[in-house]
Amino acid sequence: MSRVTWCAWWMVLLALGGGALAEESTRGLVLPDEVVWGPASPKLPAGARIAVLVGDPSVPGELYVFRAKLPDGYRVAPHTHPMDEHVTVIRGTMVLGFGEERDEEEMRELPTGSYVTLPAAVPHYNRMRGETILQFHGIGPYDIVYVNPEDDPSRQ
Questions:
Q1: Residue 4: its pLDDT value, please?
Q2: Is the pTM of this model over 0.70?
Q3: Which pLDDT value is given to residue 51?
Q4: DSSP letter string over 103-124?
């Protein structure tokens, strides 16, 4: 398709659906001071706060976006997920490692602005340096499965 044809198509789409496009762009708009933090899943260690921005992470096939606010030193034991986990570091530093056992020497720092995709069923673990806000997005259902079931806080 030539550049002229491409531009013409965009002009037609904007002329016919400009109102719909403007309306669509405001859906899901969340400003930083409008984020509502609530309790995290009992499957996470104490201290985490969660804010769901879009969708419902528990619904199969539904797009979700949520944030987790985690205190300095917060740790999650080795675990997996049944789905790919997409994580962006909004604030702070997430220190991430892979494997079924924690190895502090092999962990890698992900500073503010970092992004990582953690494939389904790949064991990993983390800790936070400074108060850290992570943003997660994907297709539900979101779940966490600990390598060692004794590490699951919801079992205690």
A1: 41
A2: yes
A3: 97
A4: -GGG-EEE-TT-EEEE-TT--E
